Design the sequence.
């Protein structure tokens, strides 16, 4: 057991050590914490702006359409309540439905400031409402401009990770490996990687979560052109040295991955997090190459669909855990 | 007394050491300095943009509404002064009030560029004013778009601190503790904390403000998922070691807190400052846990309303000050 | 040969060591990697926003004009399909071509929200389409505003490099030199340079790419006011020490340049990359001065057209490679 | 003389050492380099965006007004050339001047997209031009929105420096002092200062510019609340130790100041540069306090108009230079 404590667990992960308090995995595959907050109202807990920024594009478009329609419905209702006789140009011999529709379209012409003018406000109240609506339209548009720019310009790393982490032969032993590549036409420089392993261990009869840093063979690269395989050598210094395959799974190992880089698209620091659990572990496999020389020989081709391509291999066990 | 000077006071805090010059607390709870500036005109001293950025949302909306109304009133006045007969489509058999209102609504239609056209400028002067007003509208709108985006995208840490700082049992002595948590759905990484204590002490009959750094047991965490309790161990190296409860209060201790982190919402460095005075100190208390496993066991729940939850405990005094 | 391995090759460049996999040069003169990606759909691989950001100005203007025309054509088609009798104010005694044109111009008046109103929508369908088009216009404009601001505010280093790298006399030996200058009215501070050389060498009968850092005499300057000549001294520690001119060319040497600085225009970190291949090497040349005192003697003049000005000189060979 | 070379001059300043090449002062008081660039066309040398960003507010407003008027004049000319009979609603019985004015105001209504519609385009050509103009208006507005936001959000340090640098008594010798304070309601943290002195010295009959760093007693402060006096102690290690007042002036000393900080308004790194020449030096003076306790005793008042307040004092010369 003293062997097992050679690697000191760390308590600066921001997670708690108390295993029977925390539930499930710590970090979700998309990098968010598996965590809910409560005790204060939702509007204090949620940043609406960032929720709209991170929303899927289709949902965002839907939200704008919904807002546009709802605002028009509300203002159309007000114009109708005041009376459509205060909208010059509307044929009042028509039905109520036609009047409501006319109010709706007048509203949309005001909200977007297109203002054809074949329908125009005449009375005091209608003029006040129309004046308010055109201001609303301008402000809403300012918000939308901000949101669209925010969505575009939000710095992101655009990294794709292998679906699995593998334990592969490495040097004269074995290593834990995770592969990643940037999949967009951006370019990352000064890329740093940090791996932390969480183990749920039984200590003196109590379950506790222990965290250990996993040192990497190369923890920083100057430029991420091709793919990058993160390699943690499982040698005597490694916190994984003492565990065999079954123990890793029984202790519900979870590897937290944190990547930080400078992106030339955004000229900004970007980061991406993810996590691999014991279910993502393939014990005895190695990644296959994912780039090759182009047919004409003048450039290199990175094959992104092969990021998780691996073949099974046997591991030479040398650690005491396997004896 | 020599004991008391073991911790060297620091003079790189940006505050002056001269206690009878400075007044009241140094830093306000919201992190701003308790400081006024004068000697140059207010428009040089104030950044209007940032004032509008930091304004409460309701005040900001009010400011926009006020600006909109005031601008329309001014332009309506000009149109009226030139003569509403130069606005085609206005019924001139009406009263002066109606003419003013018509000028006002024409102004609002021009400022927002909705321009229905049932009222339109005809004379040279009126055309020039209308042309200027529509440009004004477009520029004002550009400013508002910038302000709204600026308000949205202003990087903030969204940290909530415990209302009190406590002196709690720690290791075989005691420690000064402050608790914080991020209360929004943002995620902070590489979080650093820095505590500085200010003491107003009597030195050779003169009051002086002395600053000491308070080393933390953990001063940097990789990720702020749950809450974080900042712990300063009051051991022999601590500048607080020599003071008992009464002295801390008499010397008007003030703890300056500075947090710096990288935020994934903004992909930017964020920071937050606050300060605790001796009035916020609870001597002999410890914070209660504020997170628990969710009912279904798959995630952790952080209870933000418990951030200041503590229970009173007795402190085992071992420092010479209490002998 | 042992001599030749004194400089340890590095494998944190983000490029692979496998020479018969990689093709052509590694980095293009504009700093992009000579690399293609495939295996995932193009819309996942390309960031449209950044493509539009990096596009030449003339192409960007063309793209906007194209989008404007295409959108108007589409909406004009819809209005025509519904029937131009639902656009009040259009003279229906005219030809089909005139009707289509009228629909096109009505569309453009709606898309830009100018909405004169001499042509206005009347039927239900036409009103719905017009309402949708004005929203489209507003959103498209929001996107364009974001793109234009993004293009303006994209932090760039605005550095110009000499077209050639030269091997010049330096101290009592020789040095590899590259010259650069900032060519805009921006100002760079804390400028760092990093040179890495790639050599395609034959190792045990197999071609491999080896990378070595090239230490610089001065690798960081406080402020880039004038030009800066990067100097790598080819002394005994240099990875180039063992190679003569022919070997450098045969091994297809490629020097990767990475500059990082803080820019006061953008108040942001900027970076620029480029690469020089053996074809850009001039063996035995030195750069000529490119700045002089202004005629009135009160300032310095930097002559940017002389950035590649050099004169041929003979090199005193002292390295064993030339023996 | 060997004494004089104890402080090693540095050559990583980005300025050249060649004194008869460089002219006048190196850095202007506003922090820009006293430098002109030529050899490439002005549109390559100038960033229009940043020029517009740094322009004085009044000049910027003027530039927008000019652009607005010029664009309207151009389009009015085109409409007039095509023939105002293609603008429905214009009274053609009027004079040419009136027709031109009508075309001008129609242009402005199109450019701002206000589009009243009492004047509207009818012919094909006029419609095409109007369609183009409204697009121009929208794009120009996008540019202006970007510029205004860029002007607002440009991170600046808002530091005010003392007009003079003084040599004041310090410890048992003397020190070079410069005072600065932030004059806006922003807050700077982690403020770093760097002083470099340039001396134009005669070396073996040739004038050369030598640069030396001037170490500061405190070079970094946590927070800039009050004023900050930069102090360089002129002790035996100082490059100024060997020079008396006359030599400092004869060698045309110039002190380059570089401040870097993190600003909470912008959540960004800000920087400011300035320079003091021998004409700004007051030999034998000390700065007077510039802050005091507020009348009600609850806060501190910083008096920005006293930033250069000093009183003359005598200096005790101990350096060999004065012997």
Sequence:
């Amino acid at each position: 057991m003293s062997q097992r404590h050679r690697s000191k667990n760390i308590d600066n992960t921001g997670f708690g050590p108390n295993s029977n308090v925390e539930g499930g995995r710590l970090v979700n595959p998309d990098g968010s914490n598996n965590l809910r907050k409560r005790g204060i109202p939702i509007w204090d807990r949620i940043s609406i702006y960032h929720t709209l920024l991170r929303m899927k594009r289709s949902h965002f478009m839907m939200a704008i359409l919904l807002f546009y329609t709802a605002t028009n419905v509300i203002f159309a209702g007000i114009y109708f309540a005041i009376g459509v006789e205060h909208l010059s140009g509307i044929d009042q011999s028509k039905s109520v439905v036609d009047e409501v529709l006319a109010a709706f379209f007048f509203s949309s012409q005001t909200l977007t400031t297109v203002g054809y003018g074949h329908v125009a406000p005449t009375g005091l109240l209608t003029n006040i409402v129309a004046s308010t609506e055109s201001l609303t339209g301008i402000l809403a548009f300012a918000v939308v401009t901000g949101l669209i720019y925010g969505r575009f310009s939000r710095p992101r790393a655009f990294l794709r990770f292998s679906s699995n982490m593998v334990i592969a032969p490495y040097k004269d032993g074995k290593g834990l490996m995770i592969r990643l590549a940037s999949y967009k036409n951006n370019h990352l420089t000064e890329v740093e990687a940090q791996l932390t392993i969480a183990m749920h261990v039984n200590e003196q009869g109590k379950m506790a979560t222990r965290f250990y840093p996993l040192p990497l063979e190369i923890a920083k690269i100057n430029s991420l052109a091709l793919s990058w395989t993160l390699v943690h050598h499982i040698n005597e210094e490694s916190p994984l040295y003492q565990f065999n395959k079954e123990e890793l799974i029984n202790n519900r190992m979870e590897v937290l991955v944190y990547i930080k880089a400078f992106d030339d698209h955004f000229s900004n620091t970007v980061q991406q997090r993810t996590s691999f659990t014991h279910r993502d572990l393939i014990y005895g496999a190695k990644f296959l190459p994912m780039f090759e020389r182009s047919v004409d020989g003048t450039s290199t081709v990175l094959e992104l669909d092969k990021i998780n391509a691996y073949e099974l291999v046997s591991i030479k066990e040398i650690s005491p855990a396997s004896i």
About this structure: Chain D has two domains: 43-153, 156-322. Confidence is low (pLDDT under 50) at residues 1-6 of chain D. Chain D touches chain C through 70 residues (CB under 8 Å).
